[in-house]
Amino acid sequence: MFENLKLQSEDKIMALMSLYKADKRKEKIDLGVGVYKNNKGQTPIMDAVQKASRILNNTQKTKSYVGLSGNLGFIDNISQLVLADVVPKNQIIGAQAPGGTGAFHQLLLLIRSMEKDKRVWISSPSWPNHAAILNHLGIQFNNYNYFDYDTCEVNFSRMMSDLQKISPGDVLLLHGCCHNPTGANLSLENWTELTQFCEKKNILPLIDLAYQGFGDGINDDVKGVQYMASNLPEVCIGISCSKNFGLYRERVGAALMVVSDKKIHKLVEENLKSFNRVTFSFPPDYGASLVEIILGGNNSQDKELIHIWEKELNSMRNGMLELRKLLSDSLRRSTNSTRFDFIERHRGMFSLMGLSVDQVARLRTEFGIYMVGDSRINIAGLNKDQIDYFSSSIATVI
Ligand code: LMR
User: Fold this and answer.
1) pTM score of the predicted model
2) How many angstroms does the Cα of residue 201 sit away from the middle of ligand 1?
3) Taking the CB of residue 31, how many other CB atoms lie within 10 A of it?
4) 65-296 is a CATH 3.30.460.10 domain
5) Section 266-282 average pLDDT
6) CATH superfamily of this structure's domain 11-45+316-397
7) Is the CB of 17 under 6 A from ligand 1?
8) Is the dihedral of CA 356, 17, 382, 317 positive or negative?
9) Catalytically annotated residues
10) Closest residue (by CA) to atom 2 of ligand 1?
11) Cα–Cα distance between 334 and 328 in angstroms, integer?
């Protein structure tokens, strides 16, 4: 019977991970999957996470089930981190999910159950799994232009002109910060305009927030999200703690709904729980409990942790900003042009380099440099000693 299965198309990021693993060259460089690495090429467990694990291991009394919405202390703390006090607490409904992907999936289940012909509008380009999950769930979607391949910046006027075709009730998928794969981000003015647009056209924003703290700062990165959440009656936010807490394999995420009409709170909450029940039942607790502890538990020992975590995250971000500066300087020298100056202006883990598929393939085969086929690089995959090798390789293939 299994011979009737259809071969599934492989996600290009996952495919690249396998290619990289199989490459035996010592000098190979992995700029593929979005995993933070320090200057030694390691992804260490954050100090705040290690400390929180010790607290959790010493205090947790049971491994019994928590609840279908998961750890509510985690939900409160993560809502506070993302929305601070801009939205009254009683307008936020949250459910834990396995990672940001899980949160995105659960929010789409909720959206799909509202109306059959709801369309989701996604940026071109976007994280490949967005379209894959939408296809898998049978949800119709359209693309809107986002990235200008000549300037490697956001083309906001083309984006807005594409969005003129959006229908009332449709869903607009946005990246909360640190756009994946481009690294080109909306300005606060853009967020303001989009908020007015959503209000006027009755559009539901669905925000994927996976890199808070990786762009301009822990608070600065969510200014646009906060503006939208405090000015629209309904907003969906899918949160990942994989990157900013380094908890990748623990699968920590949250589906947050901002709903200003209190009469429908119970309905939204019960739906989120019920979708969790039929998808995976209870969300995984360990990583979420660590985040809960870091972001501020009830005792003073826990309160220290938030500062330790902020310091670590700030230094990760500053390291990436330094790499951006060094790389764009080095590319200016090696290509004798300002073509790649956008790297310094981009934010987050990624930059789309604007290289052709052939150029990306040459970098991989001839130089052992692995980037996603659309020429997305993970800036944190580079270390300072590799920068000149990387830029001279780019100069050779362009
Ligand atoms: C990425 O974009 O590389 C990360 O978000 C990892 C993933 O799951 O694709």
Assistant:
1) 0.96
2) 32
3) 25
4) no
5) 97
6) Aspartate Aminotransferase, domain 1 (3.90.1150.10)
7) no
8) positive
9) 127, 208, 210, 243
10) 34
11) 10
